[in-house]
Every structure is written in structure tokens, then in C-alpha cells.
Amino acid sequence: MIEQLFSKAKAKLLVENPAFGHIISKMKFSQNDNIQNIISDGKRFEYNDEFIQTLSQKELIFAFSHASMHKILNHTSRKQKRFSYLWQLASDYAISSLLLKSGFELPSFARYQKRFDGMYAEEIYAILQEEIKNEEFSDDEELETGFNEENKQQQKRSDQTQKDPTKQNENFQLESELEERLEQKFIEDLLNKYYEEFPEPIKRYINLPSKPTIDWKQLLRNAINTYAKHDYVIYPASKKLLYQGVYLPSLKSETLEITIVIDSSGSIDQQLLEEFLSEVASILLIIPSYTVDFFIIDDAIRSHQTLQKGDPFPPKYVLGGCGTDFRVIFSYLQEKHLYPNLLLYFTDLEGFFPEKKPSFDVIWVTKSKKEVNFGKKIYLPEGR
Hints:
The protein is α/β, with parallel strands linked by helices. It has helices at 2-16, 18-26, 49-52, 57-72, 75-78, 84-101, 121-133, 149-162, 170-194, 200-203, 216-225, 270-286, 327-335, and strands at 28-31, 38-40, 44-47, 229-238, 248-254, 256-263, 290-297, 301-308, 342-346, 361-366, 376-379. Strands 8-7-6-9-10-11 form a 6-stranded mixed beta sheet, with helices on one face. Strands 1-3-2 form a 3-stranded mixed beta sheet. Helix 12 links the parallel strand 6 (256-263) and strand 7. Helix 2 (18-26) packs across helix 4. The longest helix is centred in the middle third of the chain and has 25 residues, at 170-194. The termini are far apart. Mean pLDDT is 79; it is low at 136-152, 209-214 and 230-244.
């Protein structure tokens, strides 16, 4: 009975959304009556037998499409050191919002909150994480069961695999790496083949080497994530939900120390300036713990703030309007003997560069195609 339901839904999905259909067809299915409904991370699809039999074909196709999006958006590797069931919740919210915007009808079991519309899973995770710390997050109906049992079970399975390297010999590791590469190649080929058939809201989230579709904001977040270190500890436990006998981990973070500079010269128009400020605010939201030296500079330092988690941002006033001199910030940092993990510079690259490369990493976020003397460049496309 269940196999027939799955087969018919897969066949229909292969016709209507071939990419989703091919991905779900390669996914590992397993019955799990310890969960309430379904759960997927893009590699496996676990389901409660009784729940599946209550679904219409349309609802089952949504569940398959939702599971396939985890694979397309590469949520497994993007998780990094984030806590598993909280990341599952955040990524589910992100996918539901994206599918709704793409014309899908959300079934009653879909995890969705309007406040997360347009956000990446990383942003949603940061908000949920902050709500746990502030003890404002609850397992009520509005939050679609929150920290439910199936996510805890997934966390336990995942952690047991990751934390016990003695179970893996060299051959197994090589096989795993090969399997991962084959999966990546399969997804890349699939997305290239069916790219034009995806709804527009989904297209902008698909990274294809042959197409200029990589979202600059995601690139920037990925770059920031490489410098942000955070983990969880079991003791002391979070006070949240202790009265229900549920033990949540406490967050243990290493503070990220970065310098962010916004170019306020006369060549930066108001729209671009507001876009820069908005992206900095988003960056501050997704970093668990940070100390940010924030500068507004044209040919001189116009303002300087040291920001900690929770400090108000953005500033009400931005001074500037003169030329651009990149040497200002590097000279200042050298004089003060400051060496950040990363310097992030939002600019149009029209200015004077220092002669020597600094000892720390630099990322330039810009719309300009002009070459930089050092550091990496994240290109912000025209028209944004």
C-alpha cells in the first residue's frame, strides 16, 4: 500500500518537476514509527506509516519536493557545527517559505512562519538560537511542534556517526568521499539539465558553475562562516524546557573578531549605501558571538563603533562624501596594533590602495570589476 503511494507520487513528480523526481528517487526511504510524520535531510526520507496513509497525493508530492530541496540547497554541508535538530527546524522553515513563494500549496504539516519569508536557513537558525537563549522559544502549535522527537533522534544518529571515528577505517572513508563526489556530480548535472524548469524564486538559490546565478549574499555568509566558530555543550544545560524533562545544549562560542568598513565617499549613492548597511546588519544577526570594529570611511575615518551582540545597528547618520582612501583603515589598524580575523570592506574600489599587503585576510564587497591589489573580491551584480 505504502509502496504504491510512493511510486505513483514519484512518477507524477518526475513528469511535473523532473529534478525533484530524480532526487527523491535516489533517496533512501525508511519507516520510523517513533516519529510523528516525516523527516528528511536530503539523503534519507523517514516516515511514520500511519501518517503517510492520511496524505493526499498532492500532499505527498509536496513532502517529496520539500525533501529534495534539502539536497538542492546543500543543507547537510551548510550545517557545519550548528546543532542538528535546530538546524533541521531552520532549514525546514526556509524551504517551506521558498516553495510557497514558488506556487506550492503548503499542507497543514509543513513547518512555516511568515516572519521567516525571504531568509536563508542560517538567518533563521540565528533567530531561533537567540530565542532559546532568551527563553522565549516554546513548543506550541504556532511553532509547528518545535523541538520534536524525530529531530532529537536524527541528532543522536548524526552525532554517533560523527563523534566515533574509530568505526571508520581508511577504506570506508575513501568510499564515503567517492560517494559524496558522485552525489555532487549527480546534483550538478541534474540542476544544469533542468535549471530553466525551476520557478524563478528557486533559481536564485541554485549555484551552477556555468551560470552567473550565485547569490552574492550567500557567498558573503559562507565567507563569514569560515571565521565564526561555535559549538554546544551538554553541561550546563539550557534552562529552556527543563520543566518538561527536555535537555537542550548550552551554546559555547569563540568570539569572532572582525573589522567592517563601509565606503561613504561621494561615488557611493544612497541606494548602495543602504544596501551595504542592510547586509552588515544581516551578518551581525547570523554570528553567534562577535566583536566588530565598524568604520565609516571616505578619505578619513568618519565614525567608529565597537559592536557586541545585541548592540543597536545601523547608525542613524552616515557622514562622508569626499574621495576614497583605503590606506586610512590599514594605517589605523597598524598604529593601534590591531589584527582582526578578517577585514570586510564594502566599496566601489575607486580609491588609493596601500603599498603593502596586510597580515590579515581582506574581502572586498563591490559592484566594480576593477582589480584589487590584495584580498578576495565578492562581486555584487548591477541592478540590485
